[in-house]
Amino acid sequence: MTKTIFVTRQIPEVGISMLRNKGYVVDVREKSSIPNQKELIKVLKAKPYDAVVTLLTDKVDNQLFDAVPTAKIFANYATGFDNINLEEAKQKGIAITNAPAVSTSEAVAEHTFALMLSLAARIVEADEFVRRGKYIGWDPMNFIGTDILGKTLGLIGAGRIGAQVAHYASGFGLKVIYTDLKRNEQIEKESGAVYYSTPEEILKLADIVSLHVPLMDSTKHLINKERLAMMKKTAFLVNTARGPIIDEVALVEALQNKVIAGAGLDVFEFEPKLSKGLAKLDNVILTPHIASASDTARNEMSTLVAQNIIDFFEGKVPANKVN
Ligand code: GLV
Q1: For residue 308, how far is the Cα from the chain centroid?
Q2: Which residues span the domain enclosing 39?
Q3: Which of 9, 111, 292 for mutating ligand 1's site (highest number of atoms within 8 Å of CB)?
Q4: Are residues 185 and 138 in the same domain?
């Protein structure tokens, strides 16, 4: 029987072609909007798909598994898989894969630096100033920012992405300190990163704090009012991981009251909604969850998703099986 695959939204063509070249039938939902659960259930009930490609905006749980009992693999087009109920998948014997392409850590680490440097050099405020026609001549006091050379970068999470950030940081002359559940000897050797056992130590010591942990019960609101108050008043907070790691209401309050100097956010607690007051702040830079959106990374993710499905159909264990 020809294998059939449903893809919940358009992803780069390269992976779709890999699947079609194998002779599989691939149905890609055409609308670019985020499908709601009701729509997904309806479409999955309509055809006995053998696999489903999901996105981080899809809630993948028993409701979807029950809609398409023929599908024994759900391949997530994302590094993170906090949108998936792994326990329910396990109980039903459904394989879940993610797409942790090497190039995604490079892309996310680059975006982390883009946010850091933009905060330090006040790029967004300055761009707006020029666009509004306010630049009437060079002024030695205009938009004085801060250097990052010699500053301390504190990483909360030192997996693939955190390690890549540490790697770039050594080139920028940043001192790197980090915390994680376990030590990463590679970044200690390669980037001179110094390990601390608690996030509190990082928050107190760092000039820039960057988050690189997955979203789990234990990391939800890891950055809350109390922990924000531990940071230096001059510090920046960067989040390219997952929005709910930060209590966003507490962050808005901290930014309004200058408890910290600024924040660069690619992800939001109630994505795509922003907490009240966030978009009004000058000391925050906001990007729409695009840290991994480099052409290389997105194409590599597409090939990984396809390869995971191909391997599964061919009786091999997919390289990125997470359950
Ligand atoms: C993006 O956030 C991803 O998890 O790939």
Answers
A1: 21
A2: 4-101+295-313
A3: 292
A4: yes
